[in-house]
Amino acid sequence: MLRVLKESFCSTSFTTTRLASFTTVLSRTLRLGEGGSAREFWFWTPPSVNPDAAYTFGIIGDLGQTFDSNKTLQHYMEGKGQTVLFVGDLSYADNYPNHDNRRWDTWGRFVESSTAYQPWIWTAGNHELDFVPELGETTPFKPYLSRFHVPYHASNSTSPLWYSIKRASAYIIVLSSYSAYGKYTPQYRWLEENLKRVDRNKTPWLIVLLHSPWYNSNGYHYMEGESMRVQFESMLVAAKVDIVFAGHVHSYERTHRISNIAYNIVNGDCLPVHNESAPVYVTIGDGGNAEGLAAEFTEPQPDYSAFREASFGHAMLEIKNRTHALYYWHRNDDGKAVMADSVWIRNQYWH
Ligand SMILES: [Fe+2]
Question: Is 149 a catalytic site residue?
Answer without folding.
Answer: no
